[in-house]
Protein backbone atom coordinates (compact mmCIF):
# COMPACT_ATOMS: atom_id res chain seq x y z
CA UNK A 1 0.00 0.00 0.00
CA UNK A 2 1.16 3.54 -0.69
CA UNK A 3 1.49 6.14 2.05
CA UNK A 4 -1.53 8.00 0.64
CA UNK A 5 -3.73 4.96 1.34
CA UNK A 6 -2.83 4.77 5.03
CA UNK A 7 -3.89 7.11 7.83
CA UNK A 8 -2.80 7.26 11.44
CA UNK A 9 -4.96 8.05 14.46
CA UNK A 10 -3.87 10.65 16.99
CA UNK A 11 -2.14 8.36 19.51
CA UNK A 12 -0.14 6.70 16.73
CA UNK A 13 0.87 10.08 15.25
CA UNK A 14 1.93 11.22 18.74
CA UNK A 15 4.06 8.12 19.31
CA UNK A 16 5.81 8.45 15.94
CA UNK A 17 6.40 12.22 16.28
CA UNK A 18 7.40 12.16 19.94
CA UNK A 19 4.72 14.58 21.13
CA UNK A 20 1.90 14.49 23.64
CA UNK A 21 -1.73 14.12 22.68
CA UNK A 22 -2.36 17.54 24.24
CA UNK A 23 0.18 19.10 21.83
CA UNK A 24 -1.39 17.28 18.88
CA UNK A 25 -4.86 18.44 19.82
CA UNK A 26 -3.75 22.04 20.33
CA UNK A 27 -1.85 22.14 17.04
CA UNK A 28 -4.88 20.74 15.18
CA UNK A 29 -7.32 23.20 16.83
CA UNK A 30 -5.07 26.20 16.12
CA UNK A 31 -4.38 25.14 12.54
CA UNK A 32 -0.63 24.61 12.98
CA UNK A 33 -0.73 21.00 11.78
CA UNK A 34 -4.16 19.76 10.80
CA UNK A 35 -4.86 16.16 9.78
CA UNK A 36 -5.06 15.99 6.00
CA UNK A 37 -6.84 12.62 5.80
CA UNK A 38 -9.75 13.21 8.18
CA UNK A 39 -10.33 16.10 10.60
CA UNK A 40 -12.38 15.66 13.77
CA UNK A 41 -16.03 16.51 13.19
CA UNK A 42 -17.04 16.69 16.83
CA UNK A 43 -17.12 14.55 19.92
CA UNK A 44 -16.32 10.91 19.27
CA UNK A 45 -14.77 11.30 15.82
CA UNK A 46 -11.15 10.37 15.21
CA UNK A 47 -8.66 12.55 13.37
CA UNK A 48 -6.63 10.68 10.78
CA UNK A 49 -3.14 11.91 9.89
CA UNK A 50 -1.16 11.11 6.75
CA UNK A 51 2.47 10.05 6.74
CA UNK A 52 3.42 13.54 5.58
CA UNK A 53 1.42 15.07 8.46
CA UNK A 54 3.40 12.96 10.95
CA UNK A 55 6.70 14.07 9.38
CA UNK A 56 5.61 17.71 9.75
CA UNK A 57 4.57 17.05 13.37
CA UNK A 58 8.06 15.73 14.15
CA UNK A 59 9.68 18.73 12.42
CA UNK A 60 7.52 21.12 14.47
CA UNK A 61 8.57 19.28 17.64
CA UNK A 62 12.24 19.64 16.74
CA UNK A 63 11.83 23.36 16.02
CA UNK A 64 10.10 23.90 19.37
CA UNK A 65 12.81 21.95 21.18
CA UNK A 66 15.46 24.28 19.74
CA UNK A 67 13.63 27.48 20.63
CA UNK A 68 12.24 28.62 17.28
CA UNK A 69 9.26 30.95 17.76
CA UNK A 70 5.79 29.66 17.01
CA UNK A 71 5.34 32.42 14.42
CA UNK A 72 8.40 31.20 12.49
CA UNK A 73 7.26 27.60 12.84
CA UNK A 74 3.87 28.54 11.36
CA UNK A 75 5.66 30.11 8.37
CA UNK A 76 7.82 27.02 7.92
CA UNK A 77 4.80 24.69 8.12
CA UNK A 78 2.97 26.78 5.51
CA UNK A 79 6.02 26.52 3.25
CA UNK A 80 6.13 22.73 3.75
CA UNK A 81 2.44 22.46 2.81
CA UNK A 82 3.17 24.17 -0.50
CA UNK A 83 6.02 21.80 -1.37
CA UNK A 84 5.57 18.52 -3.21
CA UNK A 85 5.60 15.30 -1.22
CA UNK A 86 8.85 13.99 -2.71
CA UNK A 87 10.59 17.36 -2.30
CA UNK A 88 10.48 17.08 1.49
CA UNK A 89 12.83 14.13 1.65
CA UNK A 90 15.65 16.09 -0.03
CA UNK A 91 15.22 19.28 1.99
CA UNK A 92 17.22 20.65 4.91
CA UNK A 93 15.58 23.26 7.09
CA UNK A 94 18.00 25.69 8.75
CA UNK A 95 17.24 28.25 11.42
CA UNK A 96 19.10 30.91 13.35
CA UNK A 97 16.27 30.97 15.88
CA UNK A 98 14.62 33.95 14.22
CA UNK A 99 14.14 32.77 10.64
CA UNK A 100 13.70 29.37 9.01
CA UNK A 101 15.46 28.77 5.70
CA UNK A 102 15.02 25.97 3.17
CA UNK A 103 18.20 24.52 1.73
CA UNK A 104 18.10 22.00 -1.08
CA UNK A 105 21.83 21.83 -1.86
CA UNK A 106 25.08 21.69 0.12
CA UNK A 107 26.03 25.07 -1.38
CA UNK A 108 22.97 26.72 0.20
CA UNK A 109 23.81 25.20 3.60
CA UNK A 110 27.41 26.37 3.25
CA UNK A 111 26.30 29.90 2.33
CA UNK A 112 24.17 30.13 5.48
CA UNK A 113 27.03 28.91 7.64
CA UNK A 114 29.32 31.59 6.20
CA UNK A 115 27.20 34.27 7.89
CA UNK A 116 28.89 33.55 11.22
CA UNK A 117 25.77 33.31 13.39
CA UNK A 118 24.71 30.15 15.17
CA UNK A 119 22.53 27.98 12.95
CA UNK A 120 21.00 24.58 13.41
CA UNK A 121 19.57 22.34 10.75
CA UNK A 122 16.96 19.65 10.37
CA UNK A 123 17.64 17.17 7.59
CA UNK A 124 14.06 16.34 6.62
CA UNK A 125 15.17 13.08 5.00
CA UNK A 126 16.43 11.85 8.38
CA UNK A 127 13.15 12.83 10.07
CA UNK A 128 11.30 11.12 7.19
CA UNK A 129 13.16 7.84 7.82
CA UNK A 130 12.69 8.11 11.61
CA UNK A 131 8.93 8.50 11.16
CA UNK A 132 8.83 5.71 8.58
CA UNK A 133 10.60 3.37 11.01
CA UNK A 134 8.35 4.34 13.94
CA UNK A 135 5.14 3.96 11.93
CA UNK A 136 6.19 0.56 10.58
CA UNK A 137 5.87 -0.76 14.14
CA UNK A 138 2.58 0.99 14.94
CA UNK A 139 -0.98 0.61 13.70
CA UNK A 140 -2.30 2.41 10.65
CA UNK A 141 -5.70 2.49 9.07
CA UNK A 142 -6.74 2.03 5.47
CA UNK A 143 -8.20 5.33 4.32
CA UNK A 144 -10.79 3.73 2.07
CA UNK A 145 -12.12 0.95 4.32
CA UNK A 146 -11.03 1.86 7.84
CA UNK A 147 -9.40 -1.56 8.25
CA UNK A 148 -6.70 -1.60 10.95
CA UNK A 149 -3.24 -2.31 9.59
CA UNK A 150 -0.99 -3.95 12.15
CA UNK A 151 2.63 -2.83 12.24
CA UNK A 152 5.58 -5.17 12.43
CA UNK A 153 5.44 -5.48 16.22
CA UNK A 154 5.60 -9.21 16.94
CA UNK A 155 4.38 -8.69 20.53
CA UNK A 156 0.98 -7.36 19.48
CA UNK A 157 -1.03 -10.57 19.26
CA UNK A 158 -4.32 -8.95 20.38
CA UNK A 159 -4.30 -6.49 17.46
CA UNK A 160 -3.58 -9.32 14.99
CA UNK A 161 -6.53 -11.33 16.31
CA UNK A 162 -8.82 -8.28 16.21
CA UNK A 163 -7.78 -7.61 12.61
CA UNK A 164 -8.52 -11.25 11.60
CA UNK A 165 -11.97 -11.03 13.16
CA UNK A 166 -12.96 -8.12 10.88
TrEMBL record:
Please name the Gene3D superfamilies in this protein's record. Answer: 1.10.1660.10
Give the superkingdom in one word: Bacteria
UniProt keywords, alphabetically:
DNA-binding
Q: Which PANTHER family match?
A: HTH MERR-TYPE DOMAIN-CONTAINING PROTEIN (PTHR30204:SF3), REDOX-CYCLING DRUG-SENSING TRANSCRIPTIONAL ACTIVATOR SOXR (PTHR30204)
Protein species of origin: Streptomyces graminearus
* Record protein name field: MerR family transcriptional regulator
Q: Name one Pfam family in it.
A: MerR_1
- The answer on whether this UniProt entry bears the keyword Translocase reads no
HTH merR-type domain: residues covered: 16-79
| InterPro entries the UniProt entry points to | DNA-bd_dom_put_sf, MerR-type_HTH_dom, MerR_fam
Q: Does the keyword Cell inner membrane apply?
A: no
Amino acid sequence: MTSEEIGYRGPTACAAAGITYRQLDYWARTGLVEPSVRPAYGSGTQRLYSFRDVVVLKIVKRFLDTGVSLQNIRSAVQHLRERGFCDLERMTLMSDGATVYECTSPDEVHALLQGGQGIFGIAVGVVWRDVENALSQLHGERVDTGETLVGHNPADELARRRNRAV
